[in-house]
Amino acid sequence: MLVPAALGCLFLLLPLLAMGSRVPWPRFPALVTSDSSRAALLLSLQTSLASTVVCLLVGVPVALVLARTSFAGQRLLRVLVLVPLVLPPVVGGLALLYTFGRRGLLGHTLELLGVQIAFSTVAVVMAQSFVALPFLITSLEGTLRSVGGRLEVVAATLGARPTTTLLRVTLPVVMPGLLSGTVLAFARSLGEFGATLTFAGSLQGVTRTLPLEIYLQRETDPDEAVAMSFVLILIAVVVIGIAQRTRTRP
Prior knowledge:
mainly alpha; MetI-like fold; 78% helix; globular
């Protein structure tokens, strides 16, 4: 197993090392602090945090319903909820555009009310939430199923209300899985590209996140693109490290 394991690790690590070797280190501080780089990084962090909050607000209830209830069509619902995990991001962006775009299923009505979502910062948050939400749901539902519901039954038997049971029993028990899913959702939002480009476009300071800026700069200024890519890799390493630590916490 050591030989194929070593080959697999090399396959994953060598491209990162190769990119690191191409970073113009003497100019690195100037490249990553340019106006366009700082604007893209700030927008990415802001929208990723916002989309993570959205994932928490709607993902936790979905995971609880899937893990703690039983109803007709539950398996189909679980499959549909997890579809964005395997969809190409561009397809997800098209789906959002046909729903919330100016001529979309809901977008046309919203347009008449003076609300335009597509090609705005809100569209960036929605695109990131669409692709990141299944990560949180999967992580939390798996944790909920692994810990079981015995403690919740005991709490209900002792007279605890459902809300009290949720806040005082369920969430504290599954907190490692919840934290891990939250971090993974943030990481997925930070690296989102295809759905954002399709649904929100690429307007500097409005919808141009760091992955979009890297894609554009690779033709005009490859050095800046490589430097910003390295910054994104560093952020990803930190985020994944936090996720692994929360996952293995006793």
